[in-house]
Please model this.
Amino acid sequence: MDYDRSQTINGLLRPADLKRLSKRAPFSWGRDATLDWGVIALAMALFGLAPFLWLKALLLLPVILVVGNRQHALALLGHDGTHFTICYDKRLNDIVNDVVAWMPLGLTGDGYRNLHILHHRDLGTAHDPEIVYKGLRADQWDLPAKLKDVLGLAARDLVGGGLTDYKIIFEYSKPSHARSYVALAAWHLVFTGGLVLLGLWWVPVLWYVSILTSFIMFFRLRMWIEHQGTDTTQRLQLNWWQGPLLAPHLSWHHWEHHFWPSIPYSRLAEIRRLIPGVPTKTLGELILHFESCAEIKSGTALKALPEAEVPPEAVAAE
Model:
């Protein structure tokens, strides 16, 4: 389909398509949240029902990986809900999003939205929270980078190397209202207390261990494929197993999301079909690019701040 630039949003998408695609998507969000929680429950049940201690020991790492992967998937549903894509009632949208997706991970939609708005507004600049975060974890995000080094950092996350990263995420996602802290504490008291009373004390143990290990690992790996090495967003094409593993719920359509954040994740693939001419990279191509690209130090902003936002001392120094 040929798109007339004068009749489109961002020169790419027709206004009529934007309106149609931006309709709220409660059923797809609810379906995927149910599936994520179902996979988590199944993994926990398999561990709990294992009759022998040696079998539990064998299952421990796979279960932590599966739970952390679906925790990461819940975070991506939470990210989508932060853009009010679940339902038109914003208060209901946030309650559902918090209870189902954010609070289980120790975070709140209120706090994440404060952070995420800045990411969209200041993408790639020194004010982008992602650039700030990478600067705080200097040398972990240096380019060029070899795949074995990235995977080595991911492996460290599985033994607690990502604790600092979770702490940074938590501190930078502080909610605006005290009631959000109260609700967050209440969620975890009910979750942990209820399971302990049922004799399932090992479920919250596995849950929190997974958050602090494999969840952070998958979080790290996804960040490598979104904005790393560019002042904008990588446009990727992932296959049937790479998507669910590294960027669940079509979040590898991140280029489309940054252009049109009001469109629910479940419709981002349709945008890609409507705009076929923009080049994409495969995961393999992106890895090769990272291994051979020019040097970029962790936390380097690749996009200049708008002139009005440049500090006067920086101008004077020039």
User: Anything to note?
Assistant: DSSP finds 15 helices and two strands in the chain. The beta strands are 236-237, 281-282.
